[in-house]
Amino acid sequence: MQPIRTFNVSPSLPPRLEPLRRLAYNLHWDWNVDTKDLFRRLDSDLWESSHHNPVLMLGTISQSRLLEVVEDEGFLAQMDRADRQLDDYLQERTWYQKQREQKPKECYAYFSAEFGLVDCLPVYSGGLGVLAGDHLKSASDLGLPLVGVGLLYQQGYFAQYLNADGWQQERYLLNDFYNMPLHLERNADGSELRIAVDYPGRKVYARVWRVQVGTVPLYLLDTNIEPNNTYDHDITDQLYGGDIDMRIHQEIMLGIGGVQMLKALGLKVTAYHMNEGHAAFSALERIRLLIQEEGLNYVQARQVVASSNIFTTHTPVPAGIDLFAPDKMLHYLGYYAEIFGLPKEQFLGLGRENTGDLSGPFSMAVLALKMATFSNGVAQLHGVVSRQMFQGLWQNVPVEEVPIAAITNGVHARSCVAKSTQELYDRYLGPNWSSAPPDSPLWDRMEAIPDEELWRNHERCRLDMVLYVREHLVKHLTDRGASASEIIQAQEVLDPYAFTIGFARRFATYKRATLWMRDLDRIKRLLLANKDRKVQFVIAGKAHPKDIPGKELIRDINHFIREQNLEKQVVFVPNYDIHISRLMVAGCDIWLNTPRRPREASGTSGMKAAMNGLPNLSVLDGWWDEADYVRTGWAIGHGENYDDPNYQDEVEANALYELLEKEVVPLFYEHRDSDGLPRPWVAKMKDAIRLNCPFFNTARMVGEYAQRAYFPASDRYHTLTVDNYAPAKELAAWKEKLNEHWFNIRIKDVDVSAASDIEVNQTVAVKAKVDLATLTNDDVQVELYQGAIDANGDIVNAIPVVMDYQGEDAQQLSTYTGNITYTASGLQGLSLRVLPKNPNLANPYEPRLIAWAE
Ligand SMILES: *Cc1c(COP(=O)(O)O)cnc(C)c1O
């Protein structure tokens, strides 16, 4: 039955409790232990049953309970304190203000297909979303003028449950937006703010919801409204649901709709950050607006867009990238080619590495890379892999110079460290530990935390996790209609005092969730051997609904548990989410990760574990490859890459067993003092915190994005757009001139002062004559390129040296001089090259032109 009228009924609170409403609608409560405590105190059962959703809680709590707390002085005092804390937080003078005091107004828009902020907003699937959520939280902590842009999924990502055979089933729950911490954005006249996005043959409308994340607003688009047709209602129905056509519909809404939404909100955005390629269509829409509303031509508009665009890639394998067939691209987005004045093939070339490949698919990552002037991978190793993967986009640029930087991921400390542990750190390190940099003297105070206190706190966290897992399993089995004996068994799983190995993440096959089961005899020996050295596993994670091999891994684990009668010792916790993650990274003893290197771009759950004092036990991939894996955990293998996956599994499973048998479990159980305190283990816990928390932290990470990407991009935006875009037009014209003449540049006579036999540290003078082909010295920089020669005869690890311009000779050849010295002996090489130079370029590789000596 359709309603004839609808009402948005808001919770009715006694006036004295009005601050609760404000607190509930700002997600700051998620990383402020006092505020979270306040909601738990209000009604702890409701707090749990609402999935920690304070808005739903305030809407459903009984009037009698509200009247009770109005009389509760202690509660009111805590509420007023939380309210003041929020005020202080919102008014604080921030890191950003100190950095950018004299700058014109800025706004950074951060686009992501998913955001994992709190468990009551299930619009994320895994690490990418949690990273985006943490990015917003730290942007708020630092005071950045950042806004998030995403989609509000009616059903979100699925809830997982297992059938009796251990096979993953999916259940899609409807999100009730009106009972979530969401504000509907409205126009001045009170009507819903709406945008209309062009799709083939129709417009699709979307309204806008805001999640307030501290000072940062996250705006989410919702197409589940009239007069959209039923198909279009579903564009924002499920995260990563549907087929390839649905995917392109979603990415149009995210990218193109996102830009329109920012405009409708009146935001003057100066830097755009595309978190993964899903939002890359935003570049097309920005170009269109500059052409149609600002009168720029395509080349000029593209310059403005690229100069202010930032792209972060998270995918170290080509198979993980969104690709669209050319005919689909033209069907959905072909009208942009007309607006841009581009032939179809040239338009499709924006998403092709090799623009000459006329049948190749359209890659969102390639589009993003071509439309950004700052790009990065998410760990140092991932930077290396990305530079190799996309080297073809920068012809003749040595792979180590391919302009894809690396900004290592982090996690938001106040969101992932257990409450009691945060209080412990607050007490001994002071409240700034959650964002203090690695060189802060605060970290020396780690030693002041008594071993006993850290250990007892950790044991409490383990117990909390065990109790939660039991309760959660019982509920899951009851819902499934499991037998009474199964339910009784679930009440007793795990030993709160046993050594606990944690493994939780998405069940993508490359993560090899079953590697530890590979040798049945050996794992059974470990699990069953010694009664005073009990070992147990807690495992969780969802497979993508279409990932059958991923689901098979889940089933294999459940079969293994049953066949080996290990129900008490190995537990698969269904429906992994942020809440379960937080309990596990605090309550396990070690965090296991066994990805197939180098496929884990970064990985973040291990960082969360480290901040809670867990050593990691992991393959050297992603972030762990650059961590202090000797002092803060153990490395499985030595960072080898293998061609034969089966052989790799064999070698790495063996290495894992060796470490567990000979090092990890003994360190945990041996060397206990008379109080049962494992001092050497606790020392490792302290190292895990001290050495990882300050670096693998989104406070550091977002600061790095700000300084390396947002500030420069915003500055470029301001510089290029003054005087009605005059500098942008000039830069675009200059690039066109460059393109026209570049291929006539010739490096002519190269004069080297020494013969081929020289000594280490001997200075060699080089003089070169360059035909700049009507370009001038102001347009270029000429560089010496010196380095060792490898087995293939190529110069490697070169250090470029800029040469000095000496003027033009009678034949109009430009003369350049420079000196080199070799600091190492052996076969060394020298080359020369010319690169474009312009103060408004983000980097010399931006025009994708380079001329080498022949
Ligand atoms: C942190 C987190 C992840 C990411 O874990 P990885 O180790 O990076 O795979 C996934 N899901 C949830 C719920 C998380 O909290």
TrEMBL record:
Coiled coil: none annotated. GO terms for molecular function: glycogen phosphorylase activity; pyridoxal phosphate binding. Its cofactor is pyridoxal 5'-phosphate. It catalyses: [(1->4)-alpha-D-glucosyl](n) + phosphate = [(1->4)-alpha-D-glucosyl](n-1) + alpha-D-glucose 1-phosphate. Its EC number is 2.4.1.1. The modification N6-(pyridoxal phosphate)lysine is found at K608. Residues 13-121 form the DUF3417 domain. This is glycogen phosphorylase. It comes from Nostoc edaphicum CCNP1411.
